[in-house]
Specification:
- With 728 residues, the chain is of the alpha+beta class.
- It folds into four domains: 6-175, GAF domain (Beta-Lactamase, 2-Layer Sandwich); 189-288, PAS domain (Beta-Lactamase); 304-458, Reverse transcriptase/Diguanylate cyclase domain (Alpha-Beta Plaits), CATH 3.30.70.270; 482-715, TIM Barrel (Alpha-Beta Barrel), CATH 3.20.20.450.
- 43% of the residues lie in helices and 21% in strands.
- The strands form five sheets. Strands 19, 20, 21, 22, 23, 24, 25, 26, 27, 28 and 29 form an eleven-stranded mixed sheet that branches. Strands 1, 2, 3, 4, 5 and 6 form a six-stranded antiparallel sheet that branches.
- α2 (29-40) runs antiparallel to α6 (150-189).
- It is elongated and about 165 Å long.
């Protein structure tokens, strides 16, 4: 037996284990054992394996020279199962027997087995461990007893290391192969489209779903799937993952398609340890984009007419307002005249049909590039690009003229159609788009006030425009004042002339208090309240706060003779307000008998039925009714008879020049006679002097009201309800 042929042995083992695939390395362990036997000049080599503690030993590989095998099954060697041998091997130390006859008496079974196999000398190395592989390498000599030299043991140990590492690598290879097959199957069964992407951006492996849903096969270039304009986004996404900026990144891109637009969310992530290969998951998000497009349409376009809606119109106007060029632009507002009449007579379906027809006609009547939008209800807007004022007026004239000839027929009923149109130039110095829009809206309202079926150009120097614009601004102030409680109640005394009365008779008035403390006259904000349908809300605030004041100043209220409060014409026709008024008055039974509701003569005549209903509400509650501004409207004895009012207030135009004008004296005297005959008291307004007061008294007027008696004062300043005599 040689003492050392290390290099040839190692070279032989390297050759054996390097020339075969990793997963079949274990098949060459037998060749390795034969090589060890030949190179180290022993008679046989074996490999024992077992658990980490070597409690369960088995012979995994065994090689004996042919002359010593004697036809034995060389992979079954019972020595590994014998107790004494197992106890020796379990100890992590070298087992070196130059003569097996030196085995102790308790190893009789082992000695007998070794003799049967003609084993004279035995060497078993301490176990070596590689990962989950634990082996013990042993050598036998059958020809003669021998001493196992240090050189032999050293080379034998080197061989054990190579065999153990080869066996562990084989185990790992088998596990990896099994794992790869398992994960490949899982990958293939995933319900999402998955693929691997190599560094050339080619799809190297696609699962079943990917093959069924993606327009790609193995080896297909990913960039060929998407539109060219999306390549930059895809490149950036892949770069962030490959460079490690993000562990995972995704992008949503449309695919190339000849039929329908398909959107995919492509998610990419790295494979651990493989920088060049990415995992790609593709998810169809087309429905999301379809819904987004649908929502975008509904958000920016009118569902009925298909025109841009107010939101889109304002966004376009915003862009034009902040554009750096000096392109002249005009904005137009269009309101369909008497549209509510068509709705009331022929129904809302007819109204919708008319709006669609008008939308189509407007698009035909404007220039190419102009934007027609539906702003809401029966209102349209037009953005006219590269359009000066003269051109805008020419377009407005064409629209009004052409639409006036448009006949709308619904169920054999013909409706005449016309529009009112307001035009405003887009002023780049405007603070916001709503200033521009308010100019066009104000011009449109003036066009309606002029008789409809026409147009009006906004001009800041136009007195009518200034008044209307002031009212529009006042309407905003009214809404703010209602929300922030910026109104204040005032009162003005009504003095008796031909009556004996201890309690103060007063009229409740309203003032708006601005944040800086400025008092706004009702002559400014009340017309705006009427025009912009805010009067009912103002009246509600007045009556509610008046009754609250009365409840908190009950002693003063009970001293009062009468408290008059005005009600607007629009409130009179507002059923919701009238219902509220009845319920509110019913909750204050100790206050309502001092209350007198004033309505104007014009409101009473134009809404006689509603005025009659008001009386039906007031009479059971012992409230009284006054007719204000008598003589300024359609004076008629017929409605006086029907209304049965308690007070008639003569309009101030008959009072101001009373002392000089005999006609005014005759009219007032006649009204007083009428009052005596019909049972109502007469109140004269605008009494500016004691001389007028004395004249009124001589004519038979019952009460006087005006600056000669007192000026309006805050209701909170009233401390007593007793009246001071006037004209004593």
């Amino acid at each position: 037996m040689s003492d050392g042929l290390a290099n040839p042995l190692q070279q032989a083992l390297v050759t054996i284990f390097s020339e075969t695939p990793l997963e079949t390395l274990e098949q060459n362990v037998d060749r390795a054992l034969e090589a060890i036997t030949l190179q180290l000049h022993c008679d046989g080599v074996f490999v024992l394996t077992g658990s980490l503690s070597l409690d369960h030993l088995r012979t995994r590989n065994l090689y004996l020279k042919p002359q010593f095998s004697q036809g034995q099954q060389t992979r079954v060697w019972p020595l590994a199962r014998m107790p004494f041998f197992r106890s020796l091997v379990r100890n992590p130390k070298l087992l070196n027997l130059s003569d097996v006859n030196t085995l102790p008496p308790e190893a009789q079974a082992e000695r007998a087995l070794l003799r049967d196999w003609d084993v004279k000398s035995l060497l078993v190395l301490p176990p070596v461990v590689f990962g989950e592989t634990r082996i013990a390498l042993g050598a036998v000599n059958c020809s003669e007893c021998c001493e196992w030299s240090e050189a032999f043991i050293q080379e034998f140990q080197h061989a054990a290391v190579m065999i153990g590492s080869a066996m562990e690598l084989t185990r790992i290879a088998h596990d990896m192969l099994a794992s790869e097959n398992k994960y490949r199957e899982v990958f293939n069964q995933l319900p999402l489209a998955c693929a691997l992407l190599d560094k050339q951006n080619q799809l190297t492996m696609l699962n079943k779903v990917a093959l069924q849903t993606l327009p790609a096969q193995h080896g297909y270039d990913l960039f060929d799937m998407v539109r060219e304009e999306e390549h930059a986004m895809l490149t950036d996404t892949l770069h962030m993952v490959r460079e490690g900026v993000l562990g995972q990144a995704w992008c949503e891109l449309p695919l190339k398609s000849l039929h329908q637009l398909v959107w995919l969310r492509l998610s990419f992530s790295q494979i651990h340890g493989d920088k060049d290969t990415l995992v790609m998951i593709a998810e169809d998000v087309s429905e999301k984009y379809r819904l987004a497009d649908e929502l975008s349409f509904h958000a920016n376009y009118d569902a009925l007419t298909g025109l841009p809606n107010r939101l889109h119109f304002e966004a376009l106007l915003e862009n034009l307002l902040h554009a750096k060029d000096d392109m002249p632009t005009c904005v137009a507002f269009i309101d369909v005249d008497q549209f509510q009449v068509i709705n009331n007579i022929s129904g809302h379906q007819a109204g919708d049909k008319l709006l669609c027809q008008l939308a189509l006609r407007l698009k035909q009547l404007v220039r190419k590039g102009d934007i027609v939008a539906r702003l809401g209800g029966d209102e349209f807007g037009i953005l006219m690009h590269y359009c000066n004022v003269d051109s805008a007026q020419h377009i407005a004239k064409r629209i009004c003229t052409q639409l006036a000839t448009h006949e709308f027929i619904w169920e054999n009923r013909c409706h005449n159609v016309s529009v009112s149109m307001g035009i405003a130039k887009l002023d780049k110095s405007a603070s916001d788009i709503y200033t521009v829009m308010s100019h066009a809206d104000a011009a449109c309202r003036l066009a309606k006030d002029k008789g409809r079926n026409g147009w009006h150009l906004y001009s800041a120097k136009d007195p009518k425009m200034t008044r209307l614009y002031t009212e529009m601004m006042a309407s905003v102030d009214i809404v703010s004042a209602l929300a922030l409680n910026q109104f204040e109640l005032y009162f003005q005394s009504i003095a008796p002339l031909n009556k004996q009365q201890s309690g103060l008779h007063l009229e409740v008035l309203l003032r708006m208090v601005q944040p800086n403390g400025t008092i706004v006259s009702p002559a400014i904000f009340l017309p705006a309240a009427e025009r912009y349908n805010l009067a009912a809300k103002v009246d509600l605030w007045v009556i509610d706060n008046l009754l609250k004041w009365g409840s908190s100043h009950l002693a003063t209220w009970q001293q009062l003779g009468l408290v008059s409060v005005n009600l607007s014409a629009t409130s009179l026709g507002d059923s919701e307000f009238m219902n509220w008024l009845e319920m509110r008055l019913m909750t204050e039974p100790e206050l309502v008998d001092k209350l007198c509701i004033e309505i104007t003569e014009t409101a009473a005549v134009s809404q006689l039925d509603q005025a009659t209903k008001l009386i039906e509400v007031l009479r059971p509650l012992n409230c009284q009714l006054a007719l204000d501004d008598f003589g300024a409207g359609f004076s008629s004895f017929a409605y006086l008879k029907r209304l049965n009012v308690d007070y008639v207030k003569i309009d101030g135009q008959f009072v101001i020049n009373l002392c000089e004008d005999e006609a005014d004296q005759a009219i007032i005297k006649a009204i007083c006679q009428l009052g005596q005959d019909m049972g109502f008291d007469v109140v004269a307004e605008f009494v500016e002097s004691a001389e007028i007061g004395l004249k009124l008294k001589s004519l038979g007027v019952d009460y006087a009201q005006g600056y000669a008696i007192n000026k309006p004062a805050p209701l909170l300043s009233l401390t007593s309800g007793l009246a001071d005599p006037w004209l004593v």
